[in-house]
Amino acid sequence: MRNLIQFLVRYNAFFLFVLLEIISFSLIVNTGSEAQTKVWLSSSNSITGFFSEKYNNFIQYWNLPEENLKLQKENALLKSDLRRSKFNNAIDSGIIYDSLYEQQYDYIPALVINNSVNLQNNYLTLNRGKKHGIETNTGVITSDGIVGIVLNSSQRYSTVLSILHRDTKISAMIQRNGYHGSLVWKNMNPSNMTLDAIPKHADVEVNDTIITSGYSSIFPKGVMIGVVDTFWFEAGSNFYTIDVKLSADLNKVKSTYVIKDYFREEKKELEKNTIDE
Fold first, then answer.
1. What is the pLDDT of residues 78-120, one digit of tens each?
2. Where do runs of H (alpha helix) occur along 63-203?
3. Residue 58 DSSP SS3
4. Domains in the chain, start-ordered, CATH in brackets?
5. How many Å is the maximal CA-CA distance in the chain?
């Protein structure tokens, strides 16, 4: 109590000044002219509005992770409902079915919590694992394009083999004409990859769209990869070497979707049995 009294005595001039200021403003508002009152109210509204705006911006920023998660879930549902996520059961027999398409792909939203792009072999870590339905050897994409392939999973986390890895090999195709080859990472540039095995007689143009071919069990057909940047023939080769500018910026990737293929095991088992025969 004694310290409080000493504090008030020490700063009595300041508190007296504040008190007189409050009284002055009160007299201006209550007894001043209409013009003075309007100026006071306008000033007070501006100050209140300024702090309200800052507070609302802070609250919106604080809620961004929750809002992003909601958007991811909504996008995952939309992707799962796309025609390319369905398996076409239609048979051209003149019979009309009520439902021709069976769900083949689902998309599990996940956030990137670790990432590298400047190494020879790059990886990502996601905040989703086995308990969320994540399986190994499944594709990872963003809304802009492909990201990588799930390598390992624990209960809550997954590591992803980035497309920026020397062992990456993605089956890709030119959307315009259907010629397909292997997409690999050769030049240590995080913005570009190389498309090999496109034959000389194929029609290739700069800015041709490159998409996944759907020939593997990792990515469905039609996922965006990038566009043709440049292309040339290696000496003595019968195939193009195509430099592809990636549509997804791996430096900035935060939100991803892990692709769940319900028919994958059936396809793998059939292909294995065929090879063993």
1. 665 655 555 554 444 343 344 567 888 999 999 999 999 999 9
2. 64-80
3. helix
4. 106-276 (2.40.10.340)
5. 101
